[in-house]
């Protein structure tokens, strides 16, 4: 397959978009340019994604579009706004001009969904008087009356009767409050109140309050209570009990831009606590009080927890 036709993994495409947004915010940052260069050199697909993104951006120059000022404004808003369908239309314009080889089908789910959230954002949707829907960070859904399709991320549903499609199942809630989350390779359901009837290719199962279920292409399995409260995010909290530090940072990283990780020497340390999602800096400081670790922060985009 030629380089111009190669399909790039969605995660790499999203990262290239993120780099472009960061450079627009800080175009004169020498450190940021050095980090981008290192990322581009790390993998040939990184460089290919970056070049395609630059080609795509080139279609919004003043010399190429009749109303460039308005188009550029739409492009900037589309990268941060929830109305990402406008961005998809702009991508279509770029493809029609014939120079972009970026595959629109691999665009982030939020760009082609009815509702979406950005990194660190939580959003309450006003869909019906008897149904409450809340999106967690980096999530996307399509909505049709009381039927909802989770495209990416995580959603909380609370109402008398509702229907939700996820990657591997159809879920019908009866007086239920539940969370659906798309994980790597499976869909996850947790029920806090009521009952959810789950239909998958492997059969049908009723999930009661206080229980959880993992669904994939092979079947369904019950989920034992884990160290993470699956409903706390809807209250702006990250509540954990006896969780590995590595797992805590992976979860916390969903709510912030950039990279957040830890040294292997401290990854298995365990802790419990309640942290505010809207105060990530305070969360990291609290971790240093709970465990023998310290924070290494090269920039707000690169944070590592290491032994004290």
Give the arrangement of secondary structure elements:
Blueprint lengths: L9 H16 L4 H13 L1 H15 L9 H13 L4 H13 L17 E2 L6 E6 L2 E5 L4 E5 L2 E6 L1 E12 L3 E15 L2 E15 L2 E6 L2 E5 L4 E4 L13 E8 H8 L6 E4 L7 E7 L3 H11 L2 E7 L2 E6 L1
Parallel strand pairs: 5-6, 13-16
Antiparallel strand pairs: 1-4, 2-3, 3-6, 4-5, 6-7, 7-8, 8-9, 8-10, 10-11, 12-14, 15-16
Helix pairs in contact: 1-3, 2-3, 4-5
Describe the model.
With about 300 residues, the chain is of the alpha+beta class. The protein folds into three domains: about 10-110, no CATH class; about 115-225, Jelly Rolls (Sandwich), CATH 2.60.120.1440; about 230-305, Phage tail protein beta-alpha-beta fold (3-Layer(bab) Sandwich), CATH 3.55.50.30. It has seven helices and 16 strands. The protein has helices at about 10-25, 30-40, 45-60, 70-80, 85-95, 245-250, 280-290; strands spanning about 115, 125-130, 130-135, 140-145, 145-150, 155-165, 170-185, 185-200, 205-210, 210-215, 220-225, 235-245, 260, 270-275, 295-300, 300-305. The strands form three sheets. Strands 1, 2, 3, 4, 5, 6, 7, 8, 9, 10 and 11 form an eleven-stranded mixed β-sheet that branches. Strand 10 (about 210-215) and strand 11 (about 220-225) form a beta hairpin. Helix 2 crosses helix 3. The protein is globular and about 55 Å long. The chain starts with 9 loop residues before the first helix and ends with a strand. The model is unreliable at about 1-5 and about 60-105 (pLDDT under 50).
């Amino acid at each position: 397959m030629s380089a111009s036709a190669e399909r790039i993994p969605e995660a790499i495409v999203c990262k290239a978009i993120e780099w472009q947004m960061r450079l627009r915010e800080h175009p004169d940052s020498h450190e940021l340019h050095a980090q981008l260069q290192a990322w581009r050199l790390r993998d040939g697909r990184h460089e290919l994604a970056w070049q395609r993104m630059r080609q795509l951006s080139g279609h919004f120059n003043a010399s190429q579009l009749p109303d460039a000022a308005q188009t550029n404004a739409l492009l900037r808003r589309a990268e941060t706004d929830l109305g990402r369908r406008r961005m998809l239309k702009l991508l279509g314009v770029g493809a029609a001009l014939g120079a972009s080889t970026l595959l629109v089908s691999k665009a982030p789910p939020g760009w082609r969904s009815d509702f979406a959230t950005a990194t660190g954002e939580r959003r309450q949707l006003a869909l019906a008087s008897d149904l409450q829907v809340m999106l967690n960070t980096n999530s996307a859904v399509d909505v049709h009356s009381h039927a909802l399709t989770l495209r990416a991320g995580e959603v909380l549903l609370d109402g008398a009767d509702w229907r939700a499609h996820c990657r591997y199942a159809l879920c019908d809630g009866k007086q239920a409050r539940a969370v659906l989350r798309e994980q790597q390779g499976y869909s996850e359901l947790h029920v806090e109140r009521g009952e959810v009837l789950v239909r998958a290719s492997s059969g049908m199962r009723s999930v009661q309050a206080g229980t959880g279920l993992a669904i994939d292409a092979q079947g369904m399995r019950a989920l034992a209570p884990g160290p993470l409260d699956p409903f706390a995010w809807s209250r702006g909290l990250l509540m954990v009990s006896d969780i590995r530090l590595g797992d805590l940072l992976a979860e916390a990283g969903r709510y912030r831009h950039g990279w957040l990780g830890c040294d292997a020497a401290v990854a298995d340390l365990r802790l419990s606590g309640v942290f505010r999602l809207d105060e990530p800096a305070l969360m990291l400081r609290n971790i240093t009080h709970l465990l023998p670790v310290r924070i290494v922060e090269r920039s707000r985009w690169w944070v590592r927890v290491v032994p004290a």
